[in-house]
Specification:
Strand content: 5-15%
Number of domains: 2
Structural class: alpha/beta
Radius of gyration: 19 Å
Order of helices and strands: EHEHEHEHHEEHEEEHEEHEEHEHHH
């Protein structure tokens, strides 16, 4: 992995992944792919090349790959869960037709492809506790349906054409850099911003609703480590369960008040997000990722909370 195209480079994962790849591969071309209206700014723009990269425009993608001699594509273009429910046709077009364009180009030009999956790929009939790597996947949301389909299509291109496709099923991701963008687990980001800013927090997810979560530095580590893994050790490819912690809103609230004792939270139900959350696992078994490519998270809830609050206080001058 030397010359990399990050599609969706200004999104929650992409903005931080692009910078991390540039730090780790200073001799390569790490291209920040974006769509009009979501242009890179600041250090993301200034630290390396960027290009308009619309997954629905195959010719445009092929031109970028030729120009920068791309060997690896991180395909992060997607609508998040709640947004995808509101715009299902757009979600399908971006996530499925877009992936098909990328896989066809990767087949022709010999690129490796990473397309993240999600806990949303599971459904209400999946075992919710210690969800196995290989289990029933019958999601009830457009987001989940596209994630399962992406896993299957990526596996097809590996087995049929030898395209080096790899993926992880991300849990909820918590970042102190990029604001959330319409995901079911986003409350676990919003709650820290509210606490540091001294605001009461209206939680859209009910107490007792457990979901897997991960701090962004560990998510970036997973993205990079799986693409650097020895392919001879990979039994699974699309997609690996990965996780770091599981909690409900009350547990994260109690952790925050250890540092911000006057923090207040109340519940304001969001039926759409709650229904999605109820269909997802409480916790995942990520032993296959640990065994096949050495996955191991660095952060737990306690250490993440310390780091998250410190970073936000520095940003907001609190």
């Amino acid at each position: 992995m030397k010359n990399v195209l990050v599609i969706g480079s200004t999104g929650q994962i992409g903005s931080e992944l692009t910078m991390e790849l540039r730090r780790q591969i200073p001799e390569g071309n790490i291209v920040a792919g974006y769509i009009p209206g979501a242009e890179p700014k600041g250090v993301l723009l200034e630290s390396g090349p960027s290009a308009v990269a619309d997954v629905t425009n195959a010719a445009q993608l092929a031109e970028i790959i030729d120009k920068y001699k791309i060997d690896t594509i991180y395909n992060l273009a997607a609508l998040l869960s709640a947004v995808a429910e509101a715009k299902p046709l757009l979600a399908w077009n971006i996530q499925m037709n877009g992936l098909l364009n990328i896989l066809e180009i990767a087949r022709e030009k010999k690129c490796a492809v990473f397309t993240p999956s999600s806990i949303g790929a599971f459904g209400p009939n999946t075992p919710h506790v210690n969800t196995p790597q290989d289990t029933i996947q019958r999601p009830k949301t457009m987001y989940g349906i596209t994630k399962v389909s992406c896993e299957l299509l990526s596996d097809y291109y590996f087995s049929k054409y030898g395209v080096d496709t790899r993926s992880v099923r991300f849990p909820g991701l918590i970042s102190n850099v990029t604001l959330p963008g319409g995901g079911t687990t986003d409350y676990a980001v919003d709650i820290y911003y509210a606490a540091v800013e001294g605001r009461d927090f209206a939680c859209p997810i009910q107490a007792g609703t457990f979901m897997d979560m991960m701090y962004m530095p560990d998510a970036l580590k997973a993205c990079i480590d799986i693409m650097n893994a020895d392919p001879a050790h990979l039994v699974h490819r699309n997609s690996f369960n990965v996780t770091a912690m599981s909690f409900d809103p009350e547990i994260i609230r109690k952790e925050i008040i250890k540092h911000i004792p006057d923090f207040k939270m109340h519940y304001v139900a969001d039926p759409v997000r709650q229904a999605i959350a109820d269909s997802w696992p409480d916790s995942m078994d990520d032993s296959c990722a640990r065994h096949e490519w050495g996955w191991k998270p660095t952060y737990n809830l306690e250490t993440m909370t310390v780091d998250m609050i410190a970073a936000l206080r520095k940003r907001f001058g609190k």
